[in-house]
Design brief:
125 residues; mainly beta; seven-stranded mixed sheet; four-stranded antiparallel sheet
Length: 125
């Protein structure tokens, strides 16, 4: 089993920044890829960013390229999502996910087996 706990959400004005953290515990050796997804009220869940925890390779969704970055600290078993230039459209519940995935499908939520409880991000003036 793998447990994921997100933190770092909150309220910020447009143009501001936040850094989300996802602490991973348990059988972490069973996963090799982690990702952030988000879901706004009334909308489908959207893949935001993913990272291969071994190679460090990353993949970003089109809506966040140039503004968000994903990184990991394997020593701390933590994955981060740095969010800059936040927009009201970024308002959503953000979820961390983990899975054992090879090849494509970086932001395919069906490939991720473990999920956190989410942390709320609100961007508003």
């Amino acid at each position: 089993q793998v447990q994921l706990v997100e933190s770092g959400g909150g309220s910020v004005q447009p143009g501001g920044s936040l850094r989300l953290s996802c602490a991973v515990s348990g059988s972490t050796y069973t996963t090799n890829r982690m990702a952030w997804f988000r879901q706004a009220p009334g909308k489908e869940r959207e893949g935001v960013a993913a990272i291969d925890t071994g190679s460090g390779n990353t993949y970003l969704g089109d809506s966040v390229k140039g503004r968000f970055t994903i990184s990991r600290d394997n020593g701390k078993n933590t994955v981060y999502l740095q969010m800059n230039s936040l927009e009201p459209e970024d308002t959503a519940m953000y979820y961390c996910a983990a899975g054992r995935i090879f090849g494509g499908g970086w932001l395919n939520e069906r490939l991720y087996f473990y999920w956190g409880q989410g942390t709320q991000v609100t961007v508003s003036s």
